[in-house]
């Protein structure tokens, strides 16, 4: 199993789906572990009732149907799929609305969905998903990306309330890939995935949505910075190590 | 439980039951994966290391199991299919990582015969495409393993020293060296050009690449005796920086095809540059950058041509490096922004107010000036 995860860390992130299916077929006895530890880019369906899109994942799925957070109905229809309780459903609706605004502010487009369901422990689990297609033909405002995808999966386990505070455990995964393509510099393609966790005990006075929202915002910010500065930065360092821009540096000196 | 497991995998396995090669089935795998994704997934409450979410309560899981149906049969992958999968993993290993991939693969496959076959087929292809550099025994220096220098399956010519290296692909070492025969080497006329260019390129590569190697081969017209015919040389530059203890590896590969057109006395150059980097400490991020360029210059004497070519190559490669730098500089503010901004346009964090949850949406919409 460790070997399988080692393989996943080395395969190009853009081929992670193929790599995962390959591993599943070679190691059927480890399917549940593989499926729970490896994330794949998100898929989307359109809600027939209101034409809005929603994201597919394991948390809104039953058999081959998926529950839309907008209409709370399974697509394709199911007779007895699981639903959140009506109270949790209210929270889920509110979460979807607010998260859509958050998503618009940071992503200027894209699709988001929130799913909640009751836990065995008197708490609940909430899953916040965002899918952004940043390419020129998608929602990329500046038109620099030939291809660009950001998929974020945030799963928060919310514990039962104890003396006015609640414990929140957030596991976030971000998968991204971007490609620029132009005459002078050819194709430039970066892709990657990161997963991190964060646990916090927060007062419920602010409400669950507020707490979860702030955690997610903080986490996304950290992941974005990490990807940008550390991860992409390291690959840039590597390029400069392979072929130091000695002549370029010399030419730049007079200006700087 | 176990049989339900296997049933759920039927869709993804079914695409392996026909004769086509693995690589033709990406799309099918994708679709079938999303179908088979869940049932195995949700049937087990797995308290795994990354301490993730809780699954649906068991009663929902059993409902799903019933819905999935019991009609599918168990299918096993054939040895051929397993070998193709193994080869795919090996060929997609980043620069310098094929040995690690091979080790993990061996453990995953758990079948030495299939592993050995896959490895013997995949390693040569990988080695040639990554243009690995091997040390030749006997102080002859290094040889590049490339398709241009391939004389036979495991024999590679080093034009600089006129030696042929015999190579063990799987172990990635050069086992012995023998002198090249006359038939394997180009004619003296061609060799003049090749050698002059080799010397110039070695100078350039020595200066520009801390750990780079280059070779110049004749790919067309190696038996041309004198002026009056066209011929073709190829310059190959390969540099790799491997730092597995720092979780970072990278490689630079340049291939320059140079057509010597005797009739119009022009040299036409076509360059293909490819840079890759992989950083994988607690994550997995890869760079894949490629560029193609063209240029031309006059057909001159061997020494003058060599200098001319080296200057052109140096110019293009330096320019390309600069544009890579520019791409990286643009990342945080422009390119990345198309995916996700650092902050909203308001330049403040999102106003998750502590007002009551029902009016939260309305408050936020008002504040952000969105009509709702």
Highlighted features:
heterodimer, A: 256 residues, Aspartate Aminotransferase, domain 1, globular, disordered C terminus, B: Ribosomal protein S3 C-terminal domain, Ribosomal protein S3 C-terminal domain, 4-stranded antiparallel β-sheet, 11 strands, F-actin_capping_bsu_CS (chain A)
Describe this structure in words.
Chain A: Heterodimer of an alpha and a beta subunit. The complex is a heterodimer of chains A (about 260) and B (about 375). In chain A, about 35% of the residues lie in helices and about 30% in strands. With about 260 residues, chain A is an alpha+beta fold. Chain A has two domains: about 1-40, no CATH class; about 85-240, F-actin capping protein, beta subunit (Aspartate Aminotransferase, domain 1, Alpha-Beta Complex), CATH 3.90.1150.210. In chain A, a hairpin with a 6-residue loop joins strand 4 (about 65) and strand 5 (about 75). The longest helix of chain A is centred in the C-terminal third of the chain and has 35 residues, at about 210-240. Chain B has about 375 residues and is of the alpha+beta class. Among the domains of chain B are: about 80-130, 2-Layer Sandwich (Ribosomal protein S3 C-terminal domain); about 130-180, F-actin capping protein, alpha subunit (Ribosomal protein S3 C-terminal domain); about 185-335, Aspartate Aminotransferase, domain 1 (Alpha-Beta Complex). Helices cover about 40% and strands about 25% of the residues of chain B. Chain B contains nine helices and eleven strands. In chain B, the strands form three sheets. Chain B has a five-stranded antiparallel beta sheet with strand order 7-8-9-10-11. In chain B, strands 3-4-5-6 form a four-stranded antiparallel beta sheet, with no helix packed on it. A two-stranded antiparallel ribbon of chain B has the order 1-2. In chain B, helix 4 packs parallel to helix 6 (about 110-130). The longest helix of chain B has about 35 residues, at about 300-335.
